[in-house]
Amino acid sequence: MKLFTWRMQNRQCGVVAAIVTVGALLMCFHLLGELRKLGSAVAELQDEHKLKSRSFVHSLKSLGHHPIERHLSAAKDQLNKGPEIVQVELTGHGDDEMVVIYNRVPKTGSTSFAGIAYDLCKVNHFNVIHVNTSKNAHVMSLSDQMKFVRNVTEWIEKKPVIYHGHTAFLDFSRFGVSTVPIYVNLIRDPLERLVSYYYFVRYGDDFRPNLRRRKAGNTETLDECVEKGGSDCDPEHLWLQIPFFCGQDAMCWEPGNKWALEMAKENVLRHYLLVGVTEELGDFVAVLEAVLPRFFRGAVKLFQEGTKSHLRRTSHKVPPKPETLATIQDSKIWKMENEFYQFVRKQFRFVKSQTFQQVKGQFIEKSNRFHYEKIRPR
Fold first, then answer.
1. For residue 24, how many other CB atoms are within 10 A of its CB?
2. Rounded to an integer, what distance in angstroms lies between the CA atom of residue 28 and that of residue 150?
3. Hey, CA dihedral for 252, 253, 258, 261, is it positive or negative?
4. Contacts from 259-262 at CB under 8 Å and sequence distance 24+?
5. What tens digit of pLDDT does each residue of 282-296 get?
6. How far apart are CA 66 and CA 294, in angstroms?
7. CA nearest 187: which of 264, 293, 286, 292?
8. Res 267 pLDDT > 60
9. 106, 173, 260, 377 from 251: Cα distances, Å
10. Which pLDDT score is estimated for 126?
11. What b/e string do you get for 269-280 counting C-beta neighbours within 10 Å, with b at 16 or more?
């Protein structure tokens, strides 16, 4: 009896073991099937991701965006190699919200520079808008300031965009907006600018040669004007570049105001991405192409090979005599305007030296001198 019981128990154990074995095999086959399905799904997702990535890059290039592209040299972004050093690719799609304001100073080569922007806008897919003020007023009323700020920040359909016009600097942060534009500008040697303007209002230029200017028919030279102390050559006419950078405040437009000079310097450093000098216009264009390729890709080539480097020349100028220059340079206003010009030129040359290095007589854009590392959590 005991033997029979033992055999029954043994047979039952064998049946249970067989059932467990078969169940385990079935489970294994099921899991293998699911793994194959998962592998196929992953492969499909990877193929779809690659297709979308290729499509995205293609669409970026069609819009003028080129990842990791610098346009004045072979410099690359974040190509340093080493542990925990992150490579960051620049797709450029975030630049589509950018707004640049060029509050151009008269007779500083501003038409030439604006012409470059107009020639590049279709190629680089951005807009250019001229701000035309009534009677060439350089200062806006407070209500116009508010309207202009709101227009610039909320006109989404026209972004990215460059606004240009003969208007004084306007601090957008005063008007409660969350984003502020990028300011750029050019200034010129104040004496050269005065001479150019003096003869421009008499003889015009080659840009619109048939347009009759305000002082047309007046053939008095700058030397003769200074000698007799005429109003057209009063040093107060030099007071323009400082107030343009000082801004919309009343004291900015008081000739010889020391506060205006210091405010203009502060604004150059705090609110302007770049201020160049007319005498180095080509270098100004080169730095902008390196810093803002979204707008200025191809600007250097256009400037060097095109017709924009000298778009506008005053039709007739008489070089002033040394004694005329000495008289003007003896004035307080010239000394302040010249101080501002030298300040801007020094800052511009510093920026240029940090942007380019000279290799075999040519200026090549420097490669990146920063990278990301020690990023936590892993």
1. 10
2. 67
3. positive
4. 261/336, 261/339, 261/340
5. 999 999 999 999 999
6. 9
7. 264
8. yes
9. 20, 20, 6, 53
10. 97
11. eebbebbbbbbb
* Residue 91's pLDDT band (cuts 50, 70, 90): very low
Contact in structure between 260 and 241 (CB atoms under 8 Å): no
Give the residue among 292, 280, 64 at the shortest CA–CA distance from 181: 292
Q: Which residue has the higher pLDDT, 206 or 345?
A: 345
* Residue 94: pLDDT over 80: no
Residue 65 pLDDT > 90: no
- Let me know if 166 is a catalytic residue: yes
Q: Could you write out the three-class secondary structure of 32-56?
A: HHHHHHHHHHHHHHHHHHHHHHHHH
Q: What is the pLDDT of residue 203?
A: 79
Q: Residue 90 above 80 pLDDT?
A: no
For tokens 């010239």, name the residue. 334
Read off the amino acid at residue 123: V
User: Which residue in this structure is represented by tokens 């080539």?
Assistant: 301
Task: Select from 314, 109, 337 the least CA-distant residue to 238.
Answer: 337
The active-site residue out of 65, 138, 166, 271 is 166
Alpha-carbon distances, residue 359 vs 122, 174, 210, 305, 365 (angstroms): 33, 44, 46, 22, 10
Considering the candidates 65, 138, 164, 271, report the single residue annotated as catalytic.
164
With beta carbons less than 8 A apart as the criterion, state whether 288 and 183 touch.
no
DSSP assignments along 127-175, one per residue: EEEE---GGG-SS--HHHHHHHHHHHHH-GGG-SEEEE-S-----GGGG
Of the candidates 222, 200, 198, the one whose C-alpha atom is nearest the C-alpha of residue 211 is 200
Average pLDDT of the chain, as a whole number: 80
Give the range among 46-60, 93-107, 252-266 with minimum mean pLDDT: 46-60
